[in-house]
Predict the structure.
Amino acid sequence: MVARRILLVEDNATNIAIMTEFLTDEKFEILFAKDGQEAVAVAESGKPDLILMDINLPIVSGVDATKKIRANPNTKDIPIIALTAGIMPDQKKQALDAGCNDFHGKPIDFMLLIDLMNKYLK
């Protein structure tokens, strides 16, 4: 079976390390971006099967990066799950309105996240 390719968009080194260990244990191939601008570029060049998008990012926010990914015909159909510590209803709405398929708050519940990822990777 071919490993599913996940684009992890995260700027916090601790979160990157934890998520990398989790995704590697789950046998995913991981692409990385540390800001929204890089996420847009890697989404097109790396052809991920799913994007885990932090919302609070430097340079270009996760919301704006999602809008750019959705506007590009080559990346518009990639499932995007927003990940953020900001779990207020308006932040969730903003992420979903930008084009995220789903939303998961931080700290991450890895069992719930893998279920959510599998929902979009089928």
Q: What stands out?
A: The longest strand covers residues 5-9. The chain has a mean pLDDT of 93. The two ends are 13 Å apart (CA to CA).
